[in-house]
Amino acid sequence: PPNAPAWFTDAHASMTHIDLGCHYRPIVAAWTRMEAASRFEHSESNLSAKSRPKSIGVWIRSKRTAAASINDPVQYAEEWRAWWDLLQPSWRTKDKDGQWAITATYGGAGREWGPLYRWGINGILTVVASLYFWGCVVQGKPEFLGSWERAVQDV
Fold first, then answer.
1. Which of 154, 23, 27 has the alpha carbon at shortest distance from 99?
2. What is the pLDDT of residues 50-62, one digit of tens each?
């Protein structure tokens, strides 16, 4: 968007440098709409860091200047899932396979997104970035791609 501040345009350029495909693009589009709707301001509170993947914490502490380093995609997937689970609003439920259910009311049906609804540099950008860095590592590696694709589908 033409009125976007540097923090957003820089992050957007970084999170789209490599095209991760048709399932990732809508996440970037939704993030862009969310930030534009908030006039690119910052939330009063940040997205929770509890159980967040360690490499994402390192990326944040580095002032988001370099890509997060993911050495073990399996461990990262486990860390990411634990963090994502903690970010979910209370009304979301899991299916019989332990995955977050995507039903006809997915999207909240007007309900609050709670701790997940955070915008600005310390908000949902962190989720987008966590998926982007993970996706860059697992592209072309079918043995690791499935867990990333499930995460992208849920976000």
1. 154
2. 999 999 999 999 9
